[in-house]
Amino acid sequence: MGAITMDNQFVAEETPAAGIGDRSAEFFSLRDIHAYYGESYIVQGVSFDIRKGEILALLGRNGAGKTSTLRTIARLDNPMLRSGEIWIEGKPVHAMKAYEAARAGIQLVPEDRRIIQGLTVEENLTLAQVAPGQGWALERIYEHFPRLAERRRQDGVTLSGGEQQMLAIARALAREIKLLLLDEPYEGLAPVIVEEIERILHEIKPLGITTIIVEQNAIAALRLSDRAVILDTGEVAFAGTAREVLDNAELRHEYLAI
Known about the structure:
Layout: E1 3-4, E2 10-11, E3 28-37, E4 40-50, E5 55-59, H1 66-73, E6 80-88, E7 91-92, H2 98-103, E8 106-109, H3 121-128, H4 138-144, H5 146-150, H6 161-173, E9 179-183, H7 191-204, E10 210-214, H8 218-224, E11 227-232, E12 235-241, H9 242-246, H10 249-256
Parallel strand pairs: 5-10, 5-11, 8-9, 9-10
Antiparallel strand pairs: 1-2, 3-4, 3-6, 6-7, 11-12
Helix pairs in contact: 3-6
């Protein structure tokens, strides 16, 4: 595991050779990560693995550490990772900056979507392809997101909430992508738009794109997902199949209040 310097900076050890018993050989793996906002201890020893092409629902009550875990995986400055390891295809994400994690194929779609004001739909997508590591071409994006094709010349921030969410996901796909991190993608959206987003996630799954979804609509997320991890006050309370959570009313009531 990496070490912490006197100024609280995370220093990773050298990458070990992947092999039997070495979790860096998994497609994606979190190993005992601990992350802080200042001195507030938020992510408290979270560990889980994901297979390529899986959809994992990361669930929990408000304040459980779900969004903070996504931000830590994406290597944003806050929260600060103080110890633990993050691996994707044997590469040490814990040793990367946010832009390096993005180039390694980790794309975060935040809750606020971050659509750039003053740019059209197409310009938002094109801008995402400027840096090295291009993903889907515009034609392919428009094939999967016909609503965006119809509005390609429209200012991105004038789209409906559902269309902005589609644009945010499409922008992630415009980059080289291996792991898609979705933070509350269904919030405030009509059921028909939720179904359209679910359709997109099902379409990209066979392409080997792995997804972690944080969503307060836990039932919808579970029905979409292969597996589930439930967090409680920054720690893993449950890890297993999504079906196990759907079938366990006591578990859902205790940790999800549903």
